[in-house]
Amino acid sequence: MNTLHHSSNTPFVLTIASTKGGSSKSTNAANIGGFCAEHDLKTLLIDTDTQPTLSSYYALSYSAPGGIYQLLLDKNTNPETIISKTVIPNLDLIQSNDPSNNISQMLRNAPDGALRFSSMLKQIKGYDVIIVDTRGTRDITVDMSVLAADILFCPILPHILSAKEFIRGTIGMYQDLSTFSDFGFKLPPLKAIANCVDHTNDVKFVLSQLHTLFQNEFTDDKQLATFTIPYRVAYREAATYSVPVYRHSPTEYNTIKELCLLLLPQFKDYFERNFEV
């Protein structure tokens, strides 16, 4: 069982966030986590959403009695009480267990508020990668997850209303959090990636407009990738069967590999190893 405090290595934290619901944050978290784990990276998924989609994606070989609530509430939490193990080797999970959203109220009233999560993640040892899934709205739990990240992955649905919400909500949140730089916090680079992309003309138009916006209006810490995640029914089917999408549909292996290389390039040697799907 993994332990807090005992290992000297510091995990790399990837937070997935969008203030627009339905952008497949949890699906991406599950697929990235499965890919990392199956390429020999010790990986921890953390579900901070009150609707625990990520917590339900994979079957568990061990279900811890606690989860994200205990992690944030009790600074002396025993890891065995909060870290569950999925059936995929190397892939663990801190489940969402706060359906009444008590965590948000607690953090708003706490002196360390949005900074507590960052402090707690620094105490989690024994992992190479931590992947944090967030809720699809603006909330202090999303703020804390962004502030704790080494990189921020923002999936965007390539539709005009979703793109507008991304600019208003997600980019607005990111810019608001820049005030924490006065306290020594450096915001993670933001990597936006179009998700559920098909070949229709309206999608091509929206993506063209987004690329122009990023090039002309945003600084280098906010980037829109030329890489896109395609629309495939296989992603929904894989979630039904509780497996990574590339296990259900091997043709998606290269998509998830490219996604991981884009977000976690420091682990390229792991991702380039021979792997049977």
TrEMBL record:
InterPro entries given for it? AAA_dom, DNA_Partitioning_ATPase, P-loop_NTPase
Query: Which Pfam family would be a valid example here?
Result: AAA_31
Q: Which Gene3D superfamilies match?
A: P-loop containing nucleotide triphosphate hydrolases (3.40.50.300)
- Domain named AAA: residues: 13-162
Superkingdom is Bacteria
Q: Which PANTHER family does the UniProt record give? A: COBYRINIC ACID AC-DIAMIDE SYNTHASE, P-LOOP CONTAINING NUCLEOSIDE TRIPHOSPHATE HYDROLASE
| Designated name of the protein | ParA family protein
Species annotation: Caviibacterium pharyngocola
